[in-house]
Amino acid sequence: MELFTLGVGHYTEQDVREGARALTGWVVDNKSGTASYNAKRHDARPKSILGKTGNYDADGFADILLAQPASPEFVARRLWLRYCSDAPIPQAALDRAKTQTTTAAMLRELLSADGHAELVKQPVEWLVGALRQLGIRPGELNENQRKQLQSGLTQLGQVPLRPPSVGGWPAGAAWLTTSATQARIKLAQTLAARAPQPALARLTAVPPTQRPAALARLLVIDKFTDRTLAALTPAAGDPRRLLTVGLASPEYAVS
Fold this sequence. Notes:
Blueprint: H1 13-22, E1 26-28, E2 35-37, E3 47-49, E4 52-54, H2 58-66, H3 70-83, H4 91-98, H5 103-111, H6 123-134, H7 143-156, H8 178-194, H9 197-204, H10 211-218, H11 226-232, H12 239-247, H13 250-253
Antiparallel strand pairs: 1-2, 3-4
C-alpha cells in the first residue's frame, strides 16, 4: 500500500493488519523460491479493509486497493518519476493518465506528454544499454568476464535483486557521485576491451575527425557537448579508448 498502490496517508495500521489476514494461506518454499496456496491456512473470517467488509483473499485485497481513488494518481506519479522526469508531473498529464484503465495505456499517455527532462541512468540501465549497443552478449562471456560485470555493478551500488530496502534503489542525481564516475570508467574500460568487431567497425569506417559523431550514433546520444568533444578528440585514433571515454561521458549517464 505504501510503495506500490496508494502511498503514505491513504491507509491505516488497521488496514495493514486486515490486509495481512487476507494474504494468509500463501506459503513460500525457501528452497525452490515458489509460492503455493494452502486453503487450510487461510483466515476465512470477515475482514474490514479501507471501509469494505467481506471474506477477502489476496485477489480481493488487490481489487480493493486498485479501486481506491488514490491508486491511479499514485501509480501515475511513480511511472512519471521512473520513466519520464525527476521534475514534478504536469497536472494536465496527471489528469489524463489517471483516467487510463491499464498501466500500458497510462504509461503511453505520460510518455506523450510535455514536461520530460533527462533521467539519470541507474547502473543496471547503464550497463544493459552499453552491452546492447556494443553487441556484447553476457551469455557468451566466460565466467571470469561475467564476474567482472557483476563486480562493476557492485562498485556502482546496484546489484540486481539486492536493493538496499523494500523501497528499492535511489533515483536521479544520487547516482552521480565521484566514486560512481570512477567505477563507470573502470567498467567502461572492461566493456571497450570486449567490444566485438562490428561495433569497432562503425568507428573505424570513418576518419578520426568524424569518429566522435559516429560514436554518438553508436551509443544513441543526440550530441556531445563541446567539453566532452574536447575529451573525445585525443582518443579518436584508438577506437577502444574512444569507446571508454564515450561510455563514461555525462551524456551517456543520462537518457
